[in-house]
Amino acid sequence: MLTTLPHTLLAIALLLIVVSAIQPLARWLMLSSTVMLAVVGVLLGGGATLLLNLHEGPALTEAAGMLIHIPVNAEVFLFIFLPILVFHGALSIDVRRLARDWAPVLVMAVVAVVVTTAAIGFALAPISGVPLTACLMLGAIVATTDPSAVVGIFHEIGANSRLTRLVEGESLLNDAAAISIFTIFLAQLTGQHPAAPLQAALTFLSSFGGGLLVGFVLARLMLAALPWLGGNRTAEVTLTLALPYVAYILCDEVFGFSGVVAAAAAGLTVSAVGPSTFRPQSWQFLQDIWAQLSFWASSMVFILASMLVPRLMLGMEQRDLLLIGVTILAATAARAAVLFGVMPILLVLRLSQRVPIPFKVTMLWGGLRGAITLALALSVTENGAVPSQVQQFVAIVATGYVLSTLLVNGTTLRFLVHFLKLDRLSPADQALRNQVVAIGLGEVRDKLRDTAGDYGFSAPPTAHVAALYDRRVKVETAANTFDTAISDRERVTLGLITFASQERSVLLELFQEQGLSRRVMESLLWSAESMIDGARAEGRLGYIQAARRRLQPGPRFHVAQWLHRQFRIDKPLMHCMAERFEMLLLSRLVATSMARFMRRRMEPVLGERVTEVVRDIVGRREELLQDAMDTLRLQYPGYAEALETRLLRQLGIRLEAEEYATLQRESLVGEELHDELMRGLEAMRQQIARPLQFNIQSGLDKRIAEFPVFAGLQEALLHDLAMSVTSRFVVPGEWIYRPRQRARSVYFISRGEAVLQQDGREVLLTHGDVLGEAEVIHPARRAGRARATSFCHLLELGAADFHRLLAEAPELAHRIERITEQRAPAEAVPVPVPASAPAPTPAAVLPEPAPALPGPGLPGPGRLAPREG
After folding, report:
1. 755: helix, coil or strand?
2. pTM score
3. Looking at domain 700-846, which of 2.40.50.320, 2.60.120.10, 3.40.50.300, 2.60.120.200 is its CATH number?
4. Residue 24: CA atoms inside 13 Å, Cβ hemisphere, count?
5. For residues 748 and 721, what is the distance between their CA atoms, to the nearest angstrom?
6. What's the CATH architecture for 74-274+283-419?
7. Fewer CB in a 10 Å sphere around the end CB: N or C, the chain?
8. Quick check: 550 and 527 in contact, CB under 8 A?
């Protein structure tokens, strides 16, 4: 019986109604909705098949035919539904936290699949009556886990977040591993590409690696194209919908890589970079749309695949129950061997944090199989090159195994999690919960009384409701063990995590108002998340280290500086400097604005003493930010003023928009007038959001004239000097040059401080001083070393230009001679120069060797040592 398009659409609409009806039923029965969908799908498929065979009236026969003959095959599952499910699974994962568990995730996603495939294949080969290759192919089919039922249960009962993350991470990649292995064995079974084990392994690795690369590149290209869409969020979401299909089909059909890995890599890339690329409203809209798409796809996959179960189980014999039982035992044993045998090795090798035994037990029991397994089994039955005996073997055993995991493991997993107490808060989290609730209830009670008075509620109901809150406050206060359950050190860590998380929220709020460029936003968000992760892992030390890294220029900045020094290509450095200016300014403004948050929100929860410690740690970070900002502000005051003006104007537009929204809510402004006002604000916002022009040579003549060593030089020489020097920006602890390096440049300190270590002495150099001149005048390798002790702006002059300058300005040569003599030991030969000239202001010479001065909390010697230009 062939169904027309209207019949097909009607059947799908009826299935969607069934999907909706199952949700409250599953909640009432305390079962996973996925398990319920599978059961209902089997019943629908079996009932429709029975009605067709009985011919019970034309109406029932036509309805049954519509369900049975929905045009769904393996390609529909693998090419329509799978990219959506994989991409959304990756999109909803916290990539940074997943990265902390990369080792156990990869073990479960790859090693467990390989071990399970081998265990099932070799266990079935002696008793199945089919070739070993077919048994191994079946092992690959049933090795892939389906997280939807498990994660749904975890979310419903509030299971441990790390356990949920491990299960999601495993299922994200094990589909790719299982499908890759399945493809290899299917090709061998059909005689298309018989391969040796080594060649098969190389094929598997190239499939994985190629998929990762293609998915990452396509995702970055998509993200780079977003600004061209003009902030249209519907167009942005549409572009993300195309991404997994392009990645999947290109890899699967063109490059021969894993399409599943490509879709997963694309989703992980968007998850990691998306918050700093999409505007916050667009990002939330995207998340909501993708959650709905994933719900439709996963529901339809399960119910459609389950409807195929009666067809796949046709011809089942009693002997097949033995094969299904052996498959269950082999798969469980293989999974247990990886969880309890391989996982401890990761801990010994320090590749992973400890995975508790209750987690392992839950992951063992939660290895449910679902729609992907059924789709792969269906693809075998549809392949005419596969012998009919193998088709029936794969269909029956795979389907039976899926049903056993759903009906046994899926229905009991909730109770196992309860039994292992994985749905309960840790003692520290429970204590924090009591503390927060006790404080929050008190504030709610007081606000409720004020609100009742404002709205004229009578006294008896007001007093009754307030008394209810009073009793709840007393209960929570009596149960509050915050002071004893959480140590001061844990509270400081919690405070730093809270501070960094709130800082991230403030940054997102600024980004929402288009107050940040996308690249700066990406850098700041990653820094905030690094501080959160650092505080979680190593407390205050991890937080401080992450905060320091924010101030260190990245590889892109160093490359831009090298291009500027070597080839006079200034544009990359101009962009980097503008972004660094904006990053430092915004970091300082956000950190300063957090003082009120600490006083009003953190201090009542964590206590005054702990909050003061957090304030001190954050204060030291603010001092470093201020130091870095002052160095740039002194060098480029005009740009700093323009940047602050733009930020203030953007904040003014935001306040203006809020005021108009309030007037509309109060019906003082109509909808048409409000829309007109908002269009005007949007035009102003677009005008302000244009990038500011940064000129790295701005004011260079004036800065050079401030150097005492250049006092009295002719204007023509100062101009030539300004055209010859290049700018170099160094951070505290960075080496300007090291011993034995070639002396190719002389450095003039425009801003900041540095230490020159030579002949057992340390010379502190500051604004207006020169360093590195001795080895340039007498060509030789560096005899000492120079290191920045604060944020420095150096003017770098090449050796040839320096010699030419000395030849044209004898008085400057004399000043340089005096500087060199003061720093050189007594036996040093003085530098011959022409006529005398006024002596420069001497640098401060320290008689005793001073300790290294990396600045508070900054890297010591040996860190960030760039090659001299």
Report:
1. strand
2. 0.71
3. 2.60.120.10
4. 3
5. 12
6. Up-down Bundle (1.20)
7. N
8. yes
